[in-house]
Amino acid sequence: MQTNQGITLVTGAAGFIGYHVAHRLLKDGEEVLALDNLNPYYDVRLKEARLAQLNRFSGFRFEAVDLADRAGMERLFAQHSIGRVIHLAGQAGVRYSLNNPHAYTESNITGFLHILECCRHARVEHLIYASSSSVYGGNTRVPFSVHDNVDHPVSLYAATKKANEVMAHSYAHLFGLPCTGLRFFTVYGPWGRPDMATSIFTKAILAGEPITLFNDGRMRRDFTYVDDIVEGIVRLLDHVPGPDPTWSAESPDPGSSSAPYRIYNIGNNQPVELLDLVTILERTIGREAVKQFAPMQPGDVPSTYADVDDLIRDVGFRPATPLEVGVERFVAWYREYHGL
Questions:
Q1: Mean of the pLDDT values across residues 179-192?
Q2: 146-153: average pLDDT
Q3: How far apart are CA 186 and CA 177, in angstroms?
Q4: In percent, how much of the chain has pLDDT > 90?
Q5: Of 42, 129, 157, 261, which residue is the catalytic one?
Q6: Given this model, what pLDDT does residue 3 score?
Q7: Interval 255-300: pLDDT, tens
């Protein structure tokens, strides 16, 4: 990895993906400034346990700041020489957005504006930020490509992620801020969030409690192991985007730009039905799940499937961890963390 002027800021470092990214950078000898507000969307003790793992590294510094706190964010950037930003903080979850919409506008819209403004004034070398496969919304053509139009989100969460992409593009265009957006596809693995399917199903199967499978278990997800997400981020960190000389205003490509701006999918490129995930969990745990079937929920999409050709072309990487391998590692961590 190239050395850069200034420290690398990882926002959401007490979160699932943020923790893994920070851990990888620290292992690689990088200095990491971590930001998180430790909000109670899920058990704060899990977030604190992640931070405890990171605190073992001498190059790690942590600041408890809320993205929506403009003065706090400006102070953070003024006090530290920040060279690159990996922005992974934000309000997650599709279903939570149905009942708590303001949490998404405060964190994902206002908070992201503060990130962009701070990066602009600090002349940050590269901003990488988390988007989501949810932006594909009503699209049915698969695999989902970054070169497809994504103007039909089906949840507020997805709308805020789409908004992040167009906000980033405006800053890339106006101020030359190099921005790379990453659409993550159903990330799972050790230290995962308790509101995600692998955690919910594992907890229920171990306790002998029923699990609910929406869309009668026929939902298809492009489950992506967290280490593959991290590898993609680390490779892209040094791949600073520039203007695409082939981009045409008469036939605009959503995946690139005449500005220093790019979008990438990071997904396993192999969608799996939820019923198949449950079968792998049952085999790994050694117990059968008690299954309950239900219709699809508002805001959900029946299938996600990532086209990762651009990722392969630009940084020579494609996620490839088999679901069986990733689930085995997750279950082993889950048992250890919960003392089972």
A1: 97
A2: 96
A3: 28
A4: 90
A5: 157
A6: 38
A7: 999 999 999 999 999 999 999 999 999 999 999 999 999 998 887 7
pLDDT band at residue 5 using 50, 70 and 90 as cut-offs: low
CA distance 60 to 26: 7
* Among 116, 319, 296, 139, CA closest to 215: 296
- 143 preceded by a cis bond (ω within 30 of 0): yes
Q: Is pLDDT at 209 greater than 50 in this prediction? A: yes
Q: How many residues does the chain have?
A: 340
> Taking 60 as the threshold, does the pLDDT of residue 89 lie above it?
yes
Cα–Cα distance between 108 and 313 in angstroms, integer?
30
Which residues on adjacent β-strands are paired with residue 306? 144
- Residue for token pair 């070398």: 125
Helix (H), strand (E), coil (C) string for the chain? CCCCCCEEEEECCCCHHHHHHHHHHHHCCCCEEEEECCCCCCCHHHHHHHHHHHCCCCCEEEEECCCCCHHHHHHHHHHCCEEEEEECCCCCCCCHHHHCHHHHHHHHHHHHHHHHHHHHHHCCCEEEEEEEHHHHCCCCCCCECCCCCCCCCCCHHHHHHHHHHHHHHHHHHHHCCCEEEEEECCEECCCCCCCCHHHHHHHHHHHCCEEEEEHHHCCEECCEEHHHHHHHHHHHHCCCCCCCCCCCCCCCCCCCCCCCEEEEEECCCCCEEHHHHHHHHHHHHCCCCEEEEECCCCCCCCECCECCHHHHHHHCCCCCCCHHHHHHHHHHHHHHHCCC
**Where residue 63 falls among pLDDT bands split at 50, 70, 90?**
very high
Assigned token pair, 195: 């509101």
User: Going by DSSP bridges, is the β-strand pair 7-11/224-225 parallel, antiparallel, or unpaired?
Assistant: unpaired
d(CA 98, CA 28): 40
Annotated catalytic residue 157: yes
The pTM of the whole model exceeds 0.85:
yes
| pLDDT of amino acid 218 | 87
Per the structure block, which two tokens stand in for 314? 């630009």
- Distance of alpha carbon 226 from alpha carbon 228, whole angstroms: 5
